[in-house]
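Notebook entry, structure prediction.
Reason for the run: the old model in the group folder had no record of what sequence produced it. Starting over properly, with the input documented here first.
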Amino acid sequence: MKKWVFIIVGSFLILSICDIVHAKSIEEYFSTIKHLMRQGRFMDAHGEVQLGLKEYPDHPGLIYALSDTYYYLGYFEYAIRNYLVLLDFMIENGRADSEIARTHFKLADS
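New structure, fully documented this time:
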């Protein structure tokens, strides 16, 4: 009986470690999102952004990508909300003017 419990618990621990090892880096998320966006697969890109935000919840690049996917899917109200959140973040953190200008343009276009 103890042998089976040990095998089951050991298997569970190995599978848990495998999940941690297979976590994507932020660069991998951006690469996948960019590829999907170029193909016009905005819903798939949106799903990838949401997965990325689970691992990197406040990453400004992912928030920008989320805004973009909402924009291209036609959900302008959600896009605007996220662009505004991103603008606040960039202003508070002294981000480059070109990034702020690009976000302003997307916001105005929404």
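Summary: The mean pLDDT is 80.
The old model has been moved to the deprecated folder.
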